[in-house]
Amino acid sequence: MAIKARVLAIVTRLVGVLLVPIAFCRAPGRARFLACQWALGLRFPAEDLRGLAPETLAAFTHARAEAFWRDGQLIGLTSGYRDAAEQHRIFAAEVRRAGSVSAARRRVLPPQESSHVRGLALDVRPTEGARWLEQHGGRYGLYRVYDNEWWHFEYRTVEPVRLPHPDAAARLSEHGAAYGPCQIYASEPWHYELRPDAVDGCPPMFADPAEDPRMRP
Question: What pLDDT, in 10s, does the model give residues 65-90?
Fold first, then answer.
């Protein structure tokens, strides 16, 4: 399998190079970017980029174009946007497999809490591609957010605190002030930051990142 993966990676990079002239005819200023996306689409034919939030889609496609051309690294999408019904089916199946809701939540969140449903989450492959994204994705706002999911990344405007598993966000919501992490934006219930003033209670939340003075140039 390792040899096959290496051969496919070499072929995909070669296809990307061969597609550059065709992409140049279509968009001269974006030829390498388009050629990369076409080549990766051929390598990972089952991936579906539809439904991702515009900022997530832009971050992901540009990050993997850099990985492709600068480091020869391939990054494919295993799962991106999911509608609420699909997320509910996945969560219900995990509850049955794990035996309880609390155990299931360590791997899958219900629709109302899932970033996949918001179009902000990406499950990627292979492991080498995920490793590249963990090292360099922050330049594009893409961060690994859970210790137990090497494949799961989310688009964030500020680097998040790494959590041990998906259910930890709910635990922090209940006990955040005791541990230091605080929810910062009312519009982003999944986003926490370590705050030195949390020992006396978390500071008031901003409605969204646009109201945060730290985000202004």
Answer: 999 999 999 999 999 999 999 999 99
Predicted local confidence at residue 74, as pLDDT: 97
147's tokens:
């210790």
Does residue 199 contact residue 164 with C-beta atoms inside 8 Å?
A: no
pLDDT tens-digit map of 27-55:
999 999 999 999 999 999 999 999 999 99
Q: What phi and psi, each to the nearest 5 degrees, are found at residue 124? A: -120, 170
pLDDT at res. 176? 45
Maximum CA pair distance of the chain? 60
Is the backbone peptide bond immediately before 126 cis, with ω within 30 degrees of 0? yes
Rounded to the nearest angstrom, the gap between the alpha carbon of residue 186 and the centroid of all alpha carbons in its chain is: 20
Provide φ and ψ at 171, rounded to 5°: -65, -40
Q: Which residue has the higher pLDDT, 200 or 212?
A: 212
d(Cα 23, Cα 143) in Å, to the nearest integer? Answer: 30
Can you tell me which residue has the tokens 């499950």?
123
Rounded CA-CA distance 164/9 in Å is: 31
Read off the amino acid at residue 32. Answer: R
